[in-house]
Amino acid sequence: MKSSFRKAVRAERLKLKRSPVWLAFIALPMISAFFGTFNYLNNIEILKSEWFSLWTQHSLFLCYFFMPALIGTYCSYLWRLEHTRHNWNSFLTSPLPFPALYFGKLAQAVFMAVLGNLWIFFLYYICGKLSGLNSPFPKDAASWFLFGTIGAVAVCCVQLFFSLVIRSFAVPIGIAMAGGILGLWVTNKGMGLCYPYSLYSIGMRANNPNLELDIGAHLVNSAGYIVLFAALSVLYLRRHEISAN
Amino acid sequence: MSTQNLVETHNLTKEYGKVRCVDSVNMRVAPGAVYGFLGPNGAGKSTTLKMILGLAKPTAGDITLFGTPVNEKNRIGLLKQTGSLIESPSYYGHLTGEENLQIIQTLKGCSEKDIDKVLKIVRLDEARKKLVNHYSLGMKQRLGLAAALLGFPKLLILDEPTNGLDPAGIQEMRNLIRSLPEAYGMTILVSSHLLSEIDQMADHVGIIRKGELVYQDSLESLHAHAREQIALRVSHTAIAADLLRQNGMEVSQEEDYLLLPMLDDKQVAALCRQLISQNVSLYRIEKREKSLEDIFLSLTGKESSL
Predict the structure, then answer these.
(1) Could you tell me which chain B residue has the CA closest to the CA of A13?
(2) Does the residue B105 lie in any domain?
(3) How many domains is chain B built from?
(4) pTM for this one?
(5) B64 with B176, same domain?
(6) CB distance A64 to A180 below 8 Å
């Protein structure tokens, strides 16, 4: 079983060669960091909490708008590889268990989400230094990164499921964007920990670095969404039929 | 060589909604055979092959491969011994031919050296570094075959493998398929809607029509059906038919004609005398040859597919 997972991950990595989708993970956080820093510097009189204030400006658009859309795009791309050119035939006749085939895709999505998050924090650090922040980089950022990443994995699982069952490339991305924006409202209503797209932004303490995170609820709910949507995806693969042309 | 069939289906049936695409098919593919699965477009060939590969679930009936039932539990073990090319070839266009094969080789867990071998077999070794998006349809088809050959499986399932190939490519593909059982000990199940194609590469044939397997035997037996006949047109068809049957002759009627097995000149002369003596007038005596096409048409009832 272990070797099946390894084979699936390696095969998925080979499929992503010459695929420029990852560039979006570089570009969008840069745009967000640029505007966030610009906004911070222009409102420095009222934003007095230095690193925390900068994070509020960096994280708001990124966590609610950009990152869900980015994850959605990447997940759509991962399944688009199979939705086109009759690739379901070869994908489903691979001599690997269905969970391994699914895990190959999930591993790529999670890998990009982790790299994306690392890039976000790297940009945050650089922008802070360039903005002249001399106070030490907040230790809390480690927790923001950790729980943000866990929330991102939940979003990956949800989006991979939608992109698996919906053949369209754009529709799941639309769902991700709507899901992210709706997350702002759900979080304001205090129900964010029950909503997968908010698990990412709450974990990242987007716009609210002082938030006391209910770690237990965050972990349990993230794990719940991960297990639920991974199971639904594997079940779908198991039941999937290739109808005649 | 084992006499156990490599592929066996028992009353295999598939319904999509109320439409029965495959109807109680009992297919038998012997080891080492090139089994031509012949039928007009839409007859249920692809659906049958997909069920054999687990890509579609049967509504009823069951399948065994290598004597093992096809089910969720045995799926991986069976797929390891099987190569397939279903409908159009699967490929990732942004990758080279070689990279596409690396993906399949990784998933199948076979040797990397197999990539070189199969590229040579399908004559794509010079185009291995080219993006598949820039391949012609024929090259993509050959890449699909190369992918199916990776790991040199015991069973190869090919669905219309000559689609999109030019005449030279078709001939090359037929020769290649025909050579595989001897060269690599493979058994081939190949579908086509072209009788001539199956006639040239298969040694066994199954003919499917509207989801039903209407014929299954060696190609030799199918040829035996393509026999010569004597056709008679007479004044009193029913009386003549009775008379001939009383003489122990096998008689069938087709429109105004009575069809008899091939007779020699003396037998024809004796038959004429007998009919005339019974006041049956002879209008026509013809020698007819039933071609393989005629048999196929009579079995499938489709003229458009030839």
Answers:
(1) B103
(2) no
(3) 2
(4) 0.88
(5) yes
(6) yes
Residue B238 lies in domain = 228-289
Here the tokens at position A91 are 């994908």
Q: Which two tokens stand for residue A243?
A: 């109808």
Beta bridge partners of B64: B8, B69
Cβ atoms of residues A27 and A168 within 8 Å: no
Q: Which domain holds residue A62?
A: 2-239
Domain count, chain A: 1
The sign of the dihedral angle between the CA atoms of B148, B154, B155, B160 is positive
Q: Which two tokens stand for residue A185?
A: 């409202």
B104 interface with A at CB cutoff 8 Å: yes
Q: Are residues B273 and B167 in the same domain?
A: no
**ipTM value of the model?**
0.94
Taking only the tens place, the pLDDT of each residue in A86-101 is 999 999 999 999 999 9
Nearest to A200 by CA among A66, A101, A92: A66
Smallest Cβ distance to B93: which of A85, A92, A94?
A85
Contacts of A238 in chain B (CB under 8 A): 72
